[in-house]
Design a protein that fits this description.
It is built from 5 helices and 9 strands, in the order ααααββαβββββββ. By secondary structure, it is an alpha+beta fold. The protein folds into 2 domains: about 60 residues; about 150 residues, 2-Layer Sandwich (Gyrase A, domain 2), CATH 3.30.1360.100. Keywords: Membrane, Transmembrane, Transmembrane helix.
Length: about 240
């Protein structure tokens, strides 16, 4: 059997080239169509975002106009800011009421007990000034001072516990003899000392106790009542020493 090639090689190459061109054009149309579709989708997304931003901007402007229309806005905002700080300030405040528990704890037992007429606390210098009178004279005053010097402040937070001295030094003040409201001769005194910072620490720092030579007093929460016998009116001075 004899085959006769009626198509020259050039003609066959031309047909192959045309077929490849058609495939390339078809693929280009598909890619182009997909690109156009992607552009349209992106344009719709961008348009929706712009529309949403315009709506939100309108809402913000409307609410801003309403807010700016409030009378004394600056004062209202300041008060609200201060209210947010109340809890923070409350948790960090010093517990000055513990001073009464401490004074009760360090007061010696009879006959060396004393009566206080004035208690001053200076938070800046961290000092306590005590003024009062003692029926038992200098013996009671010295007992009171020694009790204060040997008193410890204990802080307990969970399993951790630490102790510091209530004070390391007492600064003497005026002493004089006089008569109390009952007509008894008493020694009037005044002195001051620098207290440990842990004594008035905030309540969230743990449990605070005062350890005196005679016992232990929990001063985490201040007592509801202070004995009336702890405070007496100023006595009449007779002589100074």
């Amino acid at each position: 059997m004899i085959e006769i090639n009626l198509l020259p090689n050039v003609k066959r190459e031309l047909l192959k080239t045309r077929a490849m061109r058609n495939r390339v054009i078809s693929i280009s149309f598909l890619v182009g169509g997909a690109s156009i579709a992607a552009v349209v989708v992106l344009a719709l997304i961008l348009g929706s975002q712009i529309a949403a931003e315009a709506v939100q901007s309108g809402v913000i402007k409307d609410r801003n106009d309403k807010l700016m229309a409030v009378e004394d806005l600056n004062k209202v905002v300041t008060i609200q800011h201060q209210l947010t700080k109340i809890n923070e300030q409350h948790s960090g405040k010093k517990i000055n009421s513990r001073i009464f528990d401490v004074v009760t704890a360090v007061n010696p037992v009879a006959p060396n007990n004393v009566s206080f007429s004035d208690i001053k606390v200076n938070p800046e210098s961290k000092t306590i000034t005590l003024e009062g009178s003692a029926v038992n004279g200098y013996s009671a005053l010295e007992t009171l001072k020694k009790t204060i010097l040997n008193t410890k402040v204990q802080t307990t937070d969970g399993d951790k516990s630490s102790e510091v001295s209530l004070t390391k030094e007492i600064k003497d003040g005026d002493t004089s003899f006089g008569e109390n409201s009952e007509g008894k001769k008493v020694l009037q005194f005044s002195f001051s000392f620098e207290y440990a910072e842990e004594l008035l620490a905030p309540a969230n720092n743990g449990t605070v106790s005062v350890l005196t030579p005679t016992g232990k007093v929990d001063v985490t929460d201040s007592r509801q009542g202070i004995p009336d016998s702890l405070f007496k009116s100023n006595s009449k001075k007779q002589e100074k020493k």
